[in-house]
């Protein structure tokens, strides 16, 4: 009986391949290895012996087959029932239908298996047997032609293997996308489940505060920090040569074209910090702006790129090519990895003529500064389409991270490298870390574009996946599947980033806690009785005090205002009153042109040069000419200049009153004074008097100057006092000028041991001769000048005519003012005579002129006081508030005005506390997520 069974088994082996045979064939096609033997059969083994070996092996396998089939038939029903119960308890897995091959793919796969079976059957010379398994139909195997060579068979086999590898890569890409979607859904479900367990509904406000946003806010607080601990928090630093593809890699990770493009020129001119996080919408936002750019709209993308370019250009003003000012933005979107990346300007090897002289060194130092952070992850980007010897950044990376413990190497433009490279092993050596003089945690190969500006991220991603499915370099097993595509790169970088954050963040929190303790101790020892007010708080206090003092302007009493305004008006107008009105009118009244020669003073030579001069007034003062000239000049002055001068005097009075109010403050802190002075000065410079006020003042002044009648003795005495005071001040000024010209007098030379210069001696001789002349005219006649010059020549003093006339002006003015003082003194008691003549008394017309000027100034001061109280004080307060608002928005100005160790220490304390609090909040949230 056993012989019959063995005979039947041998016959079935010759006729039809079993299920095990067909599975062995499928395994051979899938893996490229044989189940029955480990190596291909050499061509020199005879075909008969080869077939016998295969038959014996199959016979041993068939024995096991019957045992398996017997057990399967016995427990089929039980297994089917258990499977049905288990299947009912499983969740819905309909999403796997998208991942499994469809009917067409199964048909192709079945056809491939049958073809392989035919080929193996031809080699073994086994005749087909009747079918045993229902789902496989056997066909008579066609006999192969004897002319078919082994090379053709090998080529066909290799082609089928390539097809299967493409299917595997496509299936892996679909698996990664589905895995990301499931991970996101899983995180959302876990958050909602946690909230439901606590008996609370999910709040949108708490969901928005993501972990990466908390970490990014800590980095924002540390922006510009000068301490060494500030730059030790982890971040991903993107470095590489210029045009190596750094920005493109970052855009592929962010899944949006957010950066401007340039044709061969430097695009990244400043560090760009990009915070990537998950969100329901794909949007971007700058740290200092509230606008959100919708990255799904091309118009918003264009605006975003323009804004980035504008910020970069603004950061490199002053002739610089690159800047260290950080441009911070956040990008949120579905499926984005959570991390913080800093894109740096590309390292260059040659400076062009349009760059600053220190551009290359500035880029190198900036890159090295970011990479020197021991917790920074270095994302080294290398262009795969150029020779490795042209790389500038790899040596820099190797110097900062020689062990490669925090470096990730990325090879870009691999599609161009495949086209240009003749030796595929070069890329393999690069991605194995055997070509560049640097080490790394991981090596990745990516394709980030096709050199087209208008390509979308989706089209670039599809192109990248097609390339890696069809690339010969990567289908031959040179690189693992996890080392390709930007998707795998994003996952790897994000994983490394969070691993670094979890390992170092608590250590950094402890460092800031120690820093805070040291600063608080220094404050207690240095400023024990003062509050810790930072720069902003100090400015707000100075602002409040200044506004309170500004409100006190309206509380100044009217008499104080009028007294100050009158003094300011006289200070601004007395030069015009003397030099433009009084002196020219008096000179015209004293002019003796046209009078008889007999009335003129004759200069008599007495034979002695030391005889004093005798002043004889040859004629009376011409009061009619004086009054007429004064009327004309006062009216011209009032119509043209007086109103404008009055406005300026009002501004000066307002300034002085405001400054005195600030000086009278007793309880103010001296640290506020620079802010107050700067704000008041700017507000006063910006303050403009109302335009209509000038027209009102002009009308009042013209009416006041037209009145020529002094009504009371008090007004008369005030006018005389003003005249005497003005004359005395003017004469003192003239005497000081004469002393500077002629030198000290005899008494001063002997008592103070001073001497005169040669020029002063000459001036003194000319002055003495002119005083002996005794003329009272404002200008000398020609014969008088000649006489003075001849007398000086006899004494050995040589001068010209112009020199004499120049010396005569102060001499005449001093003598005129002396006589005017005498007339003013005589007019003190002349009010009664003036009132009896109803203002027709002419000897005191100078007093009347000063009274008219005084009345005009008094009227002007009253009008200015009303304008200040009703309008200008409030307008100045408004200008002051605007200035303070502008100063509050200018941190550089506040830093300049509020300085010193007290301010700097308070600022450091504030920042350290904020960083520590945010770090502790972040650590708490990080521990909860674990």
UniProtKB/TrEMBL annotation:
<dbReference type="GO" id="GO:0008053">
    <property type="term" value="P:mitochondrial fusion"/>
</dbReference>
<keyword id="KW-0999">Mitochondrion inner membrane</keyword>
<dbReference type="GO" id="GO:0000266">
    <property type="term" value="P:mitochondrial fission"/>
</dbReference>
<feature type="domain" description="Dynamin-type G">
    <location>
        <begin position="230"/>
        <end position="506"/>
    </location>
</feature>
<dbReference type="InterPro" id="IPR045063">
    <property type="entry name" value="Dynamin_N"/>
</dbReference>
<keyword id="KW-0812">Transmembrane</keyword>
<keyword id="KW-0547">Nucleotide-binding</keyword>
<keyword id="KW-0378">Hydrolase</keyword>
<keyword id="KW-0446">Lipid-binding</keyword>
<dbReference type="GO" id="GO:0048312">
    <property type="term" value="P:intracellular distribution of mitochondria"/>
</dbReference>
<keyword id="KW-0496">Mitochondrion</keyword>
<dbReference type="GO" id="GO:0008289">
    <property type="term" value="F:lipid binding"/>
</dbReference>
<dbReference type="GO" id="GO:0006897">
    <property type="term" value="P:endocytosis"/>
</dbReference>
<dbReference type="InterPro" id="IPR001401">
    <property type="entry name" value="Dynamin_GTPase"/>
</dbReference>
<dbReference type="GO" id="GO:0005525">
    <property type="term" value="F:GTP binding"/>
</dbReference>
<dbReference type="GO" id="GO:0006915">
    <property type="term" value="P:apoptotic process"/>
</dbReference>
<dbReference type="Pfam" id="PF19434">
    <property type="entry name" value="OPA1_C"/>
</dbReference>
<dbReference type="Pfam" id="PF00350">
    <property type="entry name" value="Dynamin_N"/>
</dbReference>
<keyword id="KW-1015">Disulfide bond</keyword>
<dbReference type="GO" id="GO:0005874">
    <property type="term" value="C:microtubule"/>
</dbReference>
<dbReference type="InterPro" id="IPR030381">
    <property type="entry name" value="G_DYNAMIN_dom"/>
</dbReference>
<dbReference type="GO" id="GO:0016559">
    <property type="term" value="P:peroxisome fission"/>
</dbReference>
<dbReference type="InterPro" id="IPR022812">
    <property type="entry name" value="Dynamin"/>
</dbReference>
<keyword id="KW-1133">Transmembrane helix</keyword>
<keyword id="KW-0809">Transit peptide</keyword>
<keyword id="KW-0342">GTP-binding</keyword>
<dbReference type="GO" id="GO:0003924">
    <property type="term" value="F:GTPase activity"/>
</dbReference>
<dbReference type="InterPro" id="IPR045817">
    <property type="entry name" value="OPA1_C"/>
</dbReference>
<dbReference type="InterPro" id="IPR027417">
    <property type="entry name" value="P-loop_NTPase"/>
</dbReference>
<dbReference type="GO" id="GO:0005743">
    <property type="term" value="C:mitochondrial inner membrane"/>
</dbReference>
<dbReference type="GO" id="GO:0008017">
    <property type="term" value="F:microtubule binding"/>
</dbReference>
<dbReference type="GO" id="GO:0005758">
    <property type="term" value="C:mitochondrial intermembrane space"/>
</dbReference>
<keyword id="KW-0472">Membrane</keyword>
<keyword id="KW-0053">Apoptosis</keyword>
<keyword id="KW-0175">Coiled coil</keyword>
<protein>
    <recommendedName>
        <fullName>Dynamin-like GTPase OPA1, mitochondrial</fullName>
        <ecNumber>3.6.5.5</ecNumber>
    </recommendedName>
</protein>
<feature type="coiled-coil region">
    <location>
        <begin position="147"/>
        <end position="199"/>
    </location>
</feature>
């Amino acid at each position: 009986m056993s012989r019959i069974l063995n005979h039947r088994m041998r016959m079935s082996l010759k006729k039809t391949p079993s299920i095990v045979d067909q599975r062995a064939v499928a395994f051979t096609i899938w893996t490229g290895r044989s189940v029955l033997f480990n190596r291909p059969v050499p061509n020199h083994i005879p075909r008969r012996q080869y077939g016998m070996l295969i038959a014996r092996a199959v016979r041993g396998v068939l024995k096991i087959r019957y045992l398996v089939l017997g057990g399967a038939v016995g427990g089929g029903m039980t297994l089917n029932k258990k499977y049905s119960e288990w299947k009912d308890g499983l969740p819905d897995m309909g999403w796997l239908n998208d991942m499994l091959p469809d009917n067409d793919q199964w048909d192709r796969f079945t056809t491939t298996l049958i073809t392989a079976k035919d080929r193996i059957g031809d080699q073994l010379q086994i005749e087909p047997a009747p079918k045993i398994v229902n789902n496989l139909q056997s066909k008579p195997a066609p006999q192969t032609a004897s002319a078919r060579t082994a090379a053709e068979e090998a080529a066909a086999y290799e082609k089928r293997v390539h097809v299967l590898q493409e299917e595997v890569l496509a299936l892996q890409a679909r698996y990664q996308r589905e895995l990301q979607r499931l991970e996101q859904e899983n995180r959302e479900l876990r958050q909602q489940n946690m909230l439901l367990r606590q008996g609370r509904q999910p709040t949108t406000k708490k969901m928005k505060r993501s972990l990466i946003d908390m970490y990014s806010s800590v980095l924002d607080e540390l922006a510009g920090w000068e301490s060494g601990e500030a730059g030790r928090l982890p971040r991903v630093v993107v470095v590489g040569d210029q045009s190596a593809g750094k920005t493109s890699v970052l855009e592929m990770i962010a899944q949006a074209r957010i950066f401007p493009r340039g044709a061969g020129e430097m695009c990244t001119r400043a560090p760009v910090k990009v915070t990537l996080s998950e969100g329901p919408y794909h949007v971007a936002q700058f740290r200092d702006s509230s606008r959100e750019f919708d990255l799904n709209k091309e118009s918003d993308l264009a605006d975003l790129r323009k804004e980035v370019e504008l910020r970069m250009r603004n950061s490199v003003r002053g002739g610089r090519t690159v800047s260290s000012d950080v441009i911070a933005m956040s990008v949120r979107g579905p499926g984005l990895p959570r991390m913080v990346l800093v894109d740096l300007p590309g390292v260059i090897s040659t400076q062009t003529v349009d760059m600053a002289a220190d551009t290359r060194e500035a880029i190198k130092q900036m890159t090295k500064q970011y990479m020197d952070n021991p917790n920074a992850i270095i994302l080294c980007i290398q262009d795969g389409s150029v020779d490795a010897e042209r790389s500038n950044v790899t040596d820099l990376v190797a110097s900062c991270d020689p062990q490669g413990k925090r470096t990730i190497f990325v090879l870009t433009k691999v599609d161009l490298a495949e086209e240009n490279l003749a030796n595929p092993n070069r890329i393999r050596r690069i991605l194995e870390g055997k070509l560049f003089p640097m080490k790394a945690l991981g090596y990745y190969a990516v394709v980030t574009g096709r050199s087209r500006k208008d390509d979308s991220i989706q089209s670039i991603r599809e192109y990248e996946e097609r390339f890696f499915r069809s690339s010969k370099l990567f289908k031959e097993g040179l690189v693992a599947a996890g080392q390709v595509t930007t998707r795998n790169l994003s996952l790897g970088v994000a994983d490394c980033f969070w691993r670094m954050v979890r390992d170092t963040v608590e250590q950094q929190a402890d460092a800031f806690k120690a820093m805070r303790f040291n600063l608080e101790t220094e404050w207690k020892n240095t400023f024990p009785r003062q509050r810790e007010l930072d720069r902003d708080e100090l400015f707000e206090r100075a602002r409040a005090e200044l506004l309170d003092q500004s409100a006190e302007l309206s509380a100044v009493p009217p008499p104080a205002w009028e007294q100050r305004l009158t003094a300011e008006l006289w200070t601004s107008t007395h030069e015009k009153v003397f030099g433009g009105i009084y002196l020219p009118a008096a000179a015209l009244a004293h002019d003796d042109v046209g009078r008889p020669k007999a009335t003129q003073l004759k200069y008599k030579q007495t034979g002695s040069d030391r005889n004093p001069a005798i002043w004889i007034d040859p004629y009376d003062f011409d009061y009619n000419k004086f009054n007429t000239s004064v009327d004309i000049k006062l009216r011209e002055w009032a119509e043209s200049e007086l109103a404008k001068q009055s406005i300026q005097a009002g501004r000066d009075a307002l300034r002085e009153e405001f400054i005195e109010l600030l000086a009278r403050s007793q309880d103010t802190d001296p640290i506020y004074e620079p802010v107050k002075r700067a704000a008041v000065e700017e507000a006063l410079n910006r303050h403009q008097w109302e335009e209509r006020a000038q027209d009102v003042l002009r009308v009042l002044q013209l009416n006041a100057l037209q009145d020529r009648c002094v009504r009371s003795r008090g007004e008369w005495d005030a006018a005389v006092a003003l005249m005497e005071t003005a004359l005395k001040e003017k004469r003192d000024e003239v005497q000081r000028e004469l002393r500077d010209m002629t030198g000290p007098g005899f008494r001063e030379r002997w008592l103070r041991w001073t001497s005169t210069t040669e020029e002063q001696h000459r001036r003194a001789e000319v002055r003495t001769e002119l005083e002996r002349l005794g003329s009272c005219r404002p200008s000398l006649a020609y014969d008088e000048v000649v006489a003075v010059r001849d007398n000086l020549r006899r004494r050995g003093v040589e001068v010209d005519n112009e020199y004499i006339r120049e010396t005569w002006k102060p001499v005449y003015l001093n003598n005129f003012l002396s006589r005017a003082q005498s007339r003013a003194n005589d007019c003190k008691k002349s009010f009664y005579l003036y009132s009896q003549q109803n203002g027709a008394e002419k000897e005191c017309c100078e007093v009347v002129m000063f009274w008219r000027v005084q009345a005009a100034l008094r009227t002007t001061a009253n009008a200015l006081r009303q304008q200040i109280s009703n309008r200008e004080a409030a307008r100045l307060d408004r200008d002051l508030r605007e200035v303070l608002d502008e100063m509050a928005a200018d941190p550089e100005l506040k830093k300049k005005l509020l300085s010193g160790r007290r301010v700097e220490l308070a600022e450091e304390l504030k920042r350290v506390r904020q960083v520590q609090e945010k770090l502790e909040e972040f650590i708490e949230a990080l521990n909860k997520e674990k």
